[in-house]
Specification:
The structure is a homodimer of 546-residue chains. Chain A contains 22 helices and 19 strands. With 546 residues, chain A is of the alpha+beta class. In chain A, the strands form four sheets. In chain A, strands 12, 13, 14, 15, 16, 17, 18 and 19 form an eight-stranded antiparallel β-sheet that branches. In chain A, strands 5-6-10-8-9 form a five-stranded antiparallel β-sheet. The first copy, chain A, has a four-stranded mixed β-sheet with strand order 1-2-4-3. At the A-B interface, strand 9, helix 12, strand 11, helix 16 and strand 16 of A face strand 9, helix 12, strand 11, helix 16 and strand 16 of B.
Amino acid sequence: MQTYRQIYKWGDKRDSHLDAHTLEFLEEYFGTDRSRQQQIAESIRADDPVRIAPNNLASEHRQFFIQLLGEACVEQSDFSRASHALGKYYADLLHLRHGRVPFPPDVVLMPKSHQQVQQIVDYCSQHHLPIIPFGGGSSVTRALEAQRGGVSLDLQAHMHQVLELNTHNQTVRVQAGISGPQLESYLNERGYTCGHFPQSFEHSTVGGWIAARGAGQCSTGYGRAEDLMVALKVAMPIGTFESRDYPACAQAWDLNRLFAGSEGTLGVITEVTWRIFRYRPANQACGTFIFRDFESATEAMREIMQAEIGRPHLFRISDGPETWFGFKHQGFEGTWKDKFLRWKGYHPPARSTMMMTVEGDERFTRLVARRIRSIARKHGGLAAGKSPVHRWLKQRYTSSYLRDAFMDAGYMIDTMETAVTWDRLLPLWRALHKFFDETNRAVFGMSHISHVYPNGCNLYTIFMAPMKPMQPDEDIAEFLNLQQGILKTFVDHGGSISHHHGVGRMGGQFMHTQFDPTGLNMLNGIKRCLDPNGILNPGGTLSLDN
Amino acid sequence: MQTYRQIYKWGDKRDSHLDAHTLEFLEEYFGTDRSRQQQIAESIRADDPVRIAPNNLASEHRQFFIQLLGEACVEQSDFSRASHALGKYYADLLHLRHGRVPFPPDVVLMPKSHQQVQQIVDYCSQHHLPIIPFGGGSSVTRALEAQRGGVSLDLQAHMHQVLELNTHNQTVRVQAGISGPQLESYLNERGYTCGHFPQSFEHSTVGGWIAARGAGQCSTGYGRAEDLMVALKVAMPIGTFESRDYPACAQAWDLNRLFAGSEGTLGVITEVTWRIFRYRPANQACGTFIFRDFESATEAMREIMQAEIGRPHLFRISDGPETWFGFKHQGFEGTWKDKFLRWKGYHPPARSTMMMTVEGDERFTRLVARRIRSIARKHGGLAAGKSPVHRWLKQRYTSSYLRDAFMDAGYMIDTMETAVTWDRLLPLWRALHKFFDETNRAVFGMSHISHVYPNGCNLYTIFMAPMKPMQPDEDIAEFLNLQQGILKTFVDHGGSISHHHGVGRMGGQFMHTQFDPTGLNMLNGIKRCLDPNGILNPGGTLSLDN
C-alpha cells in the first residue's frame, strides 16, 4: 500500500521512537502530557493510501513523452506524482500528515540521457509546459512544488552513471542524478572521496547539490558545492551549455556559477565534473572542546580560521542550549564528568561544545589539530577527547531521521539557517535566542555553527514546539508565523535568508531584503534570457517574476 | 614635453639597458648584429610629442560632464586621450613607437564618487555614448581601445580611498580605483596584506583585478581576484548593484561573479570589499629546487597540490629554456655550481627550476615547506636554497620593465598564457615548443607555470624575436601572426585562451573555441540585459555582439 507516510518519512522507513531522556526534557520544558501529544500525532499519521486529483496532462503530450522515453519512464500514478510534489520542509510534512498534496505535477518523467532531457526541455518550452527538475527530493524550501502542474523531471531514477574518473586531474565526471552514496562508494573503492557530505547526503544528488548551492558538513575544509564543481552540462530552452574543465581561467564571467543556486529555474544540470580528494580516513585528526560560553567558543573559532594554520574540515560549535539539550539527550548530566565541568566553572546552559576534524596528509592533519587545540585552549576550551566526534560522525545522516520520531511524539521540529559575518554573529545569535525566550517556553530553540570561513560563518537553528490539535491550515499558519519570525530576526540583524538550504518558494518573500531592485532585475533578466517562456520551475521560486 | 615614449614606457620612466649576458645570448641565438638592431630600435623611439586627431565630443556632452565633475576632471588633451587609449600589449607598444594612436577616446573623465560614476553611466546610456572603464591601464588584451570614441572613465585618478578596514572580519572596503601599492601599504602599516600581487601590481587597481579576472603571483595560496572579492558596488545602465558581504550564501546565483571577467562590458565597479590576511613576512618559508627536466618538476608539483599538505603561496616552475635563459642572464653557466649540477646529470636545456614560498603561521609554513621539500626530492628535485626566491621576489614587478629595454635593443618580447588540466599539460607544452623550434631560431620561447591548482595549472610563455626594419602595419601583422600561432597551439591542445590576462579584443576571434553557440548566446544575452544600449566597452571586447 502506497501511503502518505511512505512519502513523508525520511531515511529508514521503519518506525523509530524518541529516547526517554529527550521525551522527559521536552515534557519538562514545555509542560506537556505524553499521551495527549501522542494522541495528536496519531491523528495525523496518514497511514492511508495516497489519493490526489487527476492529472491535467493533454494526451498528445503524454504520447510524445512515451514515444521519447518509453512507457516505463512516464509515471502518472497518484503515489508517484505525490512523491515528487513535496520535499522535506516541515510544512511539506504537515501537508502529507494531513493527507494533502497541494501542487502535484501532472507527470513524472525519468530520462536516461542528456539528449532526452534536452528534447524534453525543448518540447516543454515550445508547448509552455512547466518543468520542475527533481534530484533526491530533499528540498526544505518548497522548491519542488508544481504550482502550475506540468512535468517533474526525475534525474535520479536513471541518470546516475559515473562517466569518467580522472585520477591525474583528481576529478570525476558524473551524470547529475547520481546520489551521494552511489558516488562516494564508487570513489572510496578507488581510494578517493567526493568531500561533500550534506546531512541529506543519502537522499540527494550531485546536480541538486549544485542547483541548491549547498555546503557539506566538511565544507570548511573541502569547500562548498560551487567550489567543488569544475564543469557542467546543462539543458536549457535556449540549448545545451557545456563548459570546459579548466582549473581556472579568465575568459569572460563564469557561466557555471549561474547554475549554482539557480534551483532549477535556469536549466537542468545533466552532467557534472567534480573535484575529488584522496580517501585517507586513517589520517583524520579530530577533537572536542568545551567552552564556558558561546562567545569564547566563537572567538576561538574566528582566530583558528584567520590564523593561517591550515583549516579543519568538519568544524562546529553547539551553543549553550544545544549543548544542554545534547547532554540531556545523552544522559550526561549528573555524571562525574558533568560534575568536574561544573567544578571548573563550565555551567549549563552557557557552556558550549566545539568539534573538529582535519583530513589529508598525516603529518599535516596532526599539526593542524595541534595548532587548533592550542588556540582553543587559549580561549578556555577544555579538551574532551575524540569520542564525541566519532559519535557525531556515526549519526551524521541519521540524526535527521529523528524528525519523524519527534512528530510521531507530537512535537514540531524544524531548522532555519543564515550566513553572517563575525562582527554581526553575536548580536544576531542573541536576538534569535531572545526571540525564542519571548515565546515563554512555547518554543525551544538551539543553534550551532557548522560552516566556517575566515570572514564569518553560518548559524543554524533547530527549534521545537509541542503540536496542537488543529485544522491543517491553522497548523501550517502557526508554523509559518514562527518561521517567518526567525527569518525576520536573521535579516534584521544582518544575516542572509539562507546559507546552504537555498531559497525556493519558502524564502521568496524575503528576497527583496537581500537584493536591491537592480539585483532583482538582474536575476529576472538573466532568467528571461535563458528561459524565455518561463517554463523552468515557475511560480515563485527565488521570487522570480515568471 | 609629453611624448609617445612617456606613454608606452612601463614603470620607471628612465632609460635602462639590457645586461651584457642577455645581449650576448640573444645575438648568439638569433645571429643578430648589435648596432643594426639598435638602429632599428632608435628609429622608433617616438620621443616626439603626442599629436592625435581632434576629439568628436559634442559640446553639450562636454558641458554636462564639466557641470557634473568640474573642469579639472574632464580632460581632452592629446596626451591624456592617448594615455588612455592603449594598454601594455606588445602591439600597443608598437603602435606608440610608430607614433600612432588607433582608437583614442574623445574625453577622459575622472569621477570622485560612485554617484558621479552612476550619473555618467546613466547619461552615456541615454545618449548612446561609449564608456571604457580605465583602472591602471595595464591591459595586455586591447581592452582599453575606444573603438567608437566616447569616454575613458578613469577610476584611478580620484577613486582610491580605503572606506573601511574591518579587522574582525579580515576584510577591507575600498574604492575600486585604489592601486596595489596604495592598498598594500595601507594594510601593511596595520599588520595586514591584500594577498594579490600580479606582475602589474604597481600599475593596476582593485577594480581592474576583478574586471580582468586576474590572479596574483601568490594565487596558489591566497586565491584569485574572484576568490578574494567579497562584495561589490557596480554602476550599470540599469542602475546600481550592491552586494552583501556574507562569507557565503545560497540565495540564487552569485551576481558578483558576473563582474569578474566582465572587462568593463557589464558595469563599472566602483567599490570592492576584499579579504585580507595577517602580514607576517618573517614567517615566510621558501625554497628552490632544480629538476632534471620539466616533466619530473611538473609531476612533483602535481603531487604537492594533490597531497593535502597545505598549499604554497608562490609556486612556479621555469621550464628548460627559461632556466637556461635565466642562468645565462645571471652568469651562472660555467660556475662551480653549474659544473656540480651537470656532474649530477642536470643538464641544460632540460633542467628546470621550481620556486615556492609558504605564508601564514610560523609552525604551519615550516611544516608545509618540509612536506614540499620531501615530495620534490622524491622526484629528483635538488634543493638550491632560498636566495633564488629572494632574488626573484626583489624583481617581481620590475622584471617587466625590461620589456622596454628589450625593445630599445631591437628585440620583440611578449607573453601569452593558458590554463590547462594536468593530463593535457605536457602535450600542450611540447606542442608549444615544437612551434617555436619550427621557426628555426627566428623566435626564442620559454615557459613557466606560475598559478597552480589541484586539477591543473597555467602555462605562461615568453617569446622573443629580433625586430626588423618595417612599416608599422607589416610590423604588427608579423607579430599577430606569431601570436595567433601560439593561441592556436593552446586551443588545439586543450588549453584556454587566457588564464589571468583576460580576453579583451585580442582574443576575441578565439572565443568560439571556448564557448559553444549557446554559451556565446548566454554571454550576449546577459550583456544586453545589463547594458541594453551597448555603451560599455563596445566594439569587440570578449567578442560580444554590440
